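Hi R.,

Here's the chain you asked about this morning:
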Amino acid sequence: MSTVTWSVVPTYASSLPSFQFGRYPARGANMQKSVHPIIHLITGKATPQQLQEMAAFYTAYIKVAVDIERGILAGGGEWHSDCEEVVREQGSTQEHIWGAGYKPRTKEVDFYSLINIRPRQNNPDQDILSAEIREKVDNIIRERLES
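And the predicted structure, written out as tokens:
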């Protein structure tokens, strides 16, 4: 069974070590690619290199998990849940983390992710149904990922 190392490089302090989030067994057909998914924790503006690395797995699409309380996001990799794990490792709570996607070329944001299914928060769907939460997610994504 092959393995992939998930790497996270914090943008908030260059003196901090890079995070490695263990080894996970390969999942899905996309793991046949030679691209190793990289997930970056973004707390400031993403650099062009970070954007390129986050978009590498899906070529022109970045999966993100956004903490709407803290204004940070993790992006890249194959699954929104992997991004969510990275944000939670930094002290965020699940109730404030929402999944979305971003297309750097067209600057489109979508709000569709399995991690968004949470009936106890009045969101029984993969889409974020609350206009207020969608707006917060959209604003954070654009603030962090657009130049």
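The CA atoms of residues 68 and 93 lie 10 Å apart.

Let me know if you need anything else.
M.
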